[in-house]
Design a protein that fits this description.
The protein is of the alpha/beta class. The protein has two domains: 53 residues; 184 residues, Rossmann fold, CATH 3.40.50. Helix content is 31%, strand content 21%. The protein has nine helices and ten strands. The strands form two sheets. Strands 6-5-4-7-8-10-9 form a seven-stranded mixed β-sheet, with helices on both faces. Strands 1-2-3 form a three-stranded mixed β-sheet. Strand 2 and strand 3 form a beta hairpin. Helix 2 packs parallel to helix 4 and helix 7 runs parallel beside helix 9. The longest helix is centred in the middle third of the chain and has 15 residues. The chain is globular, with a radius of gyration of 19 Å. Bound molecules: S-adenosylmethionine. S-adenosylmethionine (SAM) binds next to helix 4 and helix 7.
């Protein structure tokens, strides 16, 4: 379902003022006791989380979590991450990165853990709010403070943000994109968290606009995450790809010419 009705709530009484501030910023209602909404964005003692009401398959809350679980493990393993190789970091000075599809921030966190300064853009306000909350918690956790300090988040559309970067003459080495995988939208195997994201993200920019803006901005390369067998993004062939079991990273070296995909 697209455009779900969402309200903000505070399960933790200490966070009511914060919840009211967020509701005003996002122009969402505050949920009262017993109110039924499609989704709840709620403050708990563990942080800001999104829950879908009345769906047993999506029962658990979705929260951005960098300090424990899979994210913490991947942070420790970041040197082996294919993503770090895809952005061309082999040691020396880490590249500066724009992550143009912030989502839950996992990929950004890996790049920041490798030492990169990462500017995230996320245009869906609810997703950006979840991400901002996860980053706030990561900033005060001793294991992740330094990594989180390398990340900046702006809630806006990446196409406009990249044009602004070009206008201001700011240098960015790498633009990273991880667009939604439309071909998996109906799959029962898609994880709970991704299903929630897919419900929130009502439309995405045209792939052509996003890739064109990325190619015009990145001084070194653009990296696009794709499902292993998906066609290339915006029908443009990459310079090369790094392939894993289920995904691949298409790398567009911006100093060389970019060809059009041959069907
Ligand atoms: C598949 S998710 C990215 C997941 C992310 N790589 C991670 O590690 O969590 C794609 C995200 O990109 C965002 N997005 C898509 N087009 C965008 C645009 N033009 N500007 C900003 N965000 C965009 C969507 O709102 C969505 O949250």
């Amino acid at each position: 379902m697209l455009n779900p009705d969402i309200a903000v709530a505070a399960l933790d009484p200490a966070r009511i003022a914060e919840a009211e501030k967020l509701a005003a910023e996002l122009d969402l209602p505050m949920a009262g006791p017993g109110d039924q909404y499609h989704m709840l964005l709620r403050y708990t003692g563990k942080g800001l989380e999104l829950v879908k009401q009345g769906d047993p398959n999506l029962a658990g809350p979705v929260r951005v979590e960098f300090t424990r679980g899979k994210a913490a493990f991947r942070r420790q393993q970041q040197k082996q991450e294919m993503l770090v190789r895809a952005i061309g970091f082999k040691g020396g000075a880490p590249p500066t990165v724009v992550d143009g599809t912030g989502g839950m921030g996992r990929d950004s966190f890996i790049m920041a853990a490798a030492g990169c300064r990462v500017q995230i853009f996320e245009r869906e306000p609810v997703v950006a709010a979840l991400l901002a909350d996860g980053l706030k918690r990561a900033l005060v956790h001793p294991a992740t403070t330094k990594i989180a300090q390398r990340i900046r988040l702006t809630a806006c559309d990446t196409v406009y943000a990249l044009l602004e970067i070009q206008r201001s003459g700011q240098r960015v080495d790498v633009v990273y994109l991880d667009p939604m995988f439309p071909e998996r939208r109906k799959s029962a195997r898609v994880k709970k968290e991704l299903q929630m994201l897919q419900m929130l993200v009502t439309c995405e920019s045209s792939p052509e606009h996003l890739l064109t803006a990325a190619l015009a901005t990145a001084a070194k390369r653009v990296v696009v995450k794709r499902p292993l067998r998906a066609p290339c993004f915006a029908s443009r062939s990459p310079s090369h790809s790094l392939t894993g079991k289920t995904i691949r990273f298409d790398v567009y070296i911006t100093s060389s010419s970019v060809q059009t995909c041959i069907p």
